[in-house]
Write a structure and sequence with these properties.
The chain is an alpha/beta fold. About 25% of the residues lie in helices and about 15% in strands. One of its GO terms (molecular function) is hydrolase activity.
Length: about 270
Amino acid sequence: MPGPATAMPDFVPFEIIEGDYDAAMVLLADHAMNRLPPEYGSLGLPDSAFRRHIAFDIGIEGLTRQLAAKLGVPAVLGCFSRLLIDPNRGEDDPTLIMKISDGAIIPGNYPITDQEWTRRLDTYHRPYHRAVERTIAKAGAGGRAPLVLSLHSFTPAWKGVPRPWHAAVLWDSDDRAVRPLLEMLRREEGLVIGDNQPYDGALRGDTMYRHCMTSGTPHALLEVRQDLIGDEVGIDEWAGRLAPIFAALNDDPALHEYRVFASRTGPYGS
């Protein structure tokens, strides 16, 4: 995987993969890349940090590109490392810019001025979310609510404890896409599929909350264990497994209707 030194001078915080917007499906990959704008150097970290999960979701860029190609649908990829600013956090989340991540102190993030905090929001976080908003709106322009599927990956173990799940579906309270996705994944022989594991999918201000929960847009977030998609063989296998499942979800008319569900995080707008 490329490190921060490969970043281009004209740094773009997102990439949109074009597709058939009339299909009313959008793929998202918040943590697809481990890159930094050149002016940030390496945030004071060794290059090895950018090969770890603290910098990006291992395997997700390749998986998202393959799925977008197989399904012929648009996708939005985050092009900056979560070490710079985390696009899957609300603007008021204290973990938006991490000072320490899984034992790694991030010198370039501490101390940080209010001006620099706002600069990162304006230059990277907000443009990414505007791109997501535009893409979802374009996919819904035909009158059907688009199905939004967000792709992430998780570590095989945490603090020395192995994680048994091969993949997991995270969600808040809108289960319309979640239930059939879990059912289809669990039909796959030999797979252990988590339901809101190893994390809870109800996170106020995150990408799914911001772009789907508040608008009633059908959605699901899928996490795949990183060791299973850490190379091209694994990515090919999971893209082949997920493409027909995603296509079957998208064929369901019930997953193209707007319906707002109350969030487990509390009332909207409060």
